[in-house]
User: Fold Threonine synthase from Antarctobacter heliothermus.
Amino acid sequence: MRYISTRGQAPALTFEEAMLSGLARDGGLYVPETIPQMSADDIRALHGLSYEETAFRVMRPFVGDGFTDEVFADLIAKAYAGFEHNARAPMVQIAPGHFLLELFHGPTLAFKDFAMQLIGQLFQEALERRGERVTIVGATSGDTGSAAIEAFKGLDNVDVFILYPHGRVSEVQRRQMTTPPEANVHALAMDGHFDDCQARLKDMFNHFEFRDTVRLAGVNSINWARVLAQVVYYFSSAVSLGAPDRKVSFTVPTGNFGDIFAGYIAKRMGLPIDRLVVATNQNDILHRCLSSGAYATSQVHPSISPSMDIQVSSNFERALFDAYGRDGNAVAQLMDELKNGGFNVSQGALQALREHFDSGRVSEEQTLETIRSANASMGELLCPHSAIGVRVGEDMRDPATPMITLATAHPAKFPDAVEKASGIRPPLPNRMADLYERSERVTRVENDLTALETLIQERIAK
Ligand SMILES: *Cc1c(COP(=O)(O)O)cnc(C)c1O
Assistant:
């Protein structure tokens, strides 16, 4: 299995190489050259399996020979051992035909743990075998950073630097990043928005001298291995509702388009998914694009669902690559236009996208109202991101097809918004109840590439 860049100009890599590098050297994102297929019988055989066993069967064909079957199964087991719930991704019914897939039982209370815990294991194994070390730099709107720090803290072969927008993450998110005492963890609070953090990260990857000197590795959702890990729960949840003999749809609270793109991969592998519904907050570039074809960036408006406060949805490039018939030059041209504020998706490509994706947008007031009513009518406390999903999922639901909405974070990760809406302040789970007492360690940094690169080089030299 080889991986190619969405911009067509970088060398094809193995799974392990693509995982360790993150972004392709032509600025593109790696995608599998071909999509492995699961037949109806293969999918039927997943009934009753553990999450880990399902994960092995779904991911194995993508991973190649770098990891043996035994090692890969062992790494999967370790990755999910720290989850609170034995089902890992349990599902509850919230209305007739509408189900909530709880993806927040991992160590940092957001779905990002599903991918990050696994790639922490995969990185460690691959780097030890190769006798290499890397510098991981990640940009976060809050949840990626905490999940990455949790997955990589204390590992011998990595330093992990996380850039987050100063003052724009929730207190729980911030503390999860600033309280781990391990020396290889570096939380950096940068001036600006998440998009600024993500832009500086991309600059570092495109600065080859720096990239090669520090052996830069990326774990943002542009890393293919993260997308792959997220494909698994589309299978596990659909199978529990009767796939492959019954179709399901999914609604996904969306920012960077990584999670929903994993659903698209599941569909391409053969899972009978009817609709994939993108749910956005007031930062609705994806909803506007799927509605009109115009992908036009504007200001980011901070919201109560900060993990979705994004204008440039990196993984959308992967969907565009397929929608443009895997034409890397066409994608490279669109991404050039994006530097000047946006582009128009061609009619053909827009039609291709709409074959799979629908979208909906939820205002701040509607988000609060959904948290309130979900608690009142079914005793389910939703985080603001999950509430956006539930609202759109309910609006877009076709009565003939079960809708699965992804609950992307635990309500206790966003206690202020949840309390404002419902009057209930959700408590942190016991295992992290002392989070507010732990001491914090963070470095303030300017939104400046050279300053960042200098800081990283000084830190890893120690
Ligand atoms: C990251 C995140 C999202 C958005 O996921 P994408 O893969 O970036 O689209 C939604 N909700 C929560 C809680 C998140 O942490």
Summary: The radius of gyration is 20 Å. The mean pLDDT is 96.
